[in-house]
Amino acid sequence: MSTAPVRGSFTGRFVTAAGDGLLADLLAVAALCAALAGAWPWLTLTLATLGFAATIVFNFRFAPELARSVRPTGSFIIARTLVVFAVATVFAAGDVQWWPGWLAAAVLAGLVVGEGTAERVARGAIPFSAHLPGAAIRNTPLFSAGFIFPINALAIIVFAALAALGSPAGWLVLVALAAAVPTLAVLIDGVLRIRARRGAERVVTKVLQARKPVFAVHWDAPHGTEYQLAMWLPYLERLDASFFVIVRNQGTFDSVARLTTAPVLLRKEMADMDAMIVPSLKTVFYMNNAVRNSHFVRYPHLTHIQLNHGDSDKAPSYNPVFRMFDKNFVAGQAAIDRFASHGVHVPAEVFSIVGRPQVEGIAVGARAQAAPGAPTVLYAPTWAGHNADSDYSSLPIGYEIVRGLLARNCTVIYRPHPYTDRNPAHAAQSERIKAMLRQDAVASSRAHMWGEAAERTLSITDCFNAADALVSDVSSVVPDFLYSEKPFAMAVMNVPVKRFLTDFPIAKAAYLIDSGLTSVDAGLDALIGPDPLRETRHALKTYYLGDIPADGYADAFLSEARRFLR
Fold it and tell me: Which residues form a coiled coil (predicted)?
């Protein structure tokens, strides 16, 4: 299977190269030139309509985001401004009494040009903090700047329609003035919020000092990856110490604020970090290897601890970047050996084996509700990864895997990685799997789960506990499921089986399915049948998840973390 990156469609490349703006501008320029040259009105209006339509069509993809985004406001400014004056030139037709129409056109053109300023003000009015009395501001706008583009577009359409109908020119002025109200609201509201943020910035260090935080959580990741933080927050809160969360990505601020009652602060720039350093702060926890972690790791008097957001044999799990942290909390000895086996030297004292506290809710052993001859199997494929060396996804053969499970009378829980849709080919395969499950659920009355039910209603732990077996690939899902001691299969993608077993030791406890599907029948039969790898799984469980008693399993993490808070 090829792992070449998806380069996008012709339309995507066209837009990326600003071809959409060029096309709209050329049509608008042609319309204005035709109007000034006294060409047939229908020619001018046709060119103007095409140019204006282009601005609408190319921005239609932003329609779902209007309420929470600045886009598409501030786009196609030249094209829309020229269209307004081209239309005005046609309908004025030299009539000196049409000056109110020209005034309306000037106001509309000013609104379009002013979108650039409104966009910059709206982008500058970013959230500041949540759950932090004394340094709180209103984090959301009264009116979304994203709506300005469609409002101005509608005003231009109404302007042209009224002019075409020969309506009194005064009506055109009223349309333009009405359209100005939202823009003024965004500008005034944005300026007030920016001033409020600056005021909060002046006191935030003092407010934090009063709370005496012992540790901070630094998190930088795009929207859709909140699970990285969500998996650790309940355990960090169990440390019973004052802390706050630093969020670097504006798109995740609101969702993070809903995850915790601890203070959450949006700090986008490196210069924003200094204000977070207060005398009581001792330790900082991290959940990924984001580049901007270095903005906070640079404070040497603090202890910087990497928790990571899952333990697996993937290449990112032995990234040399881990060496920039003072401590690396790992689930078991497997994580330590993984660095050494790939030539990444990390001093032994950097590691602390703390288990995976997130698995404490996973039931161990066979399900009491398991139906003989009709097992429930969780299929949880990973995503394509950022690079070819981290693309372990089994989705290219996922359809055949799920079809094989259905042929064996299995009920399937399908839970793909949250990033699956980032790869169009994988997204298409995922939709095929969902469609097959939907059809089989109707035909067989089996209670398959997919979509909202499997990906959001149930947690990953709920999915584990509802399943008798797992099919996955190289991801943190497999070591976590290992805690249950239930059987699992792994897809071997793009590498020989012998190398796969060497690179990914946990595969020794898995039933393997090769990318050519020659072993799919044998793998699935063993998975839901005799299960000869039961003892192997039990042995690897300690190696991957630590030799930690089941009772109070999470205490290993809590105890080790508290050592760095004293």
Answer: none
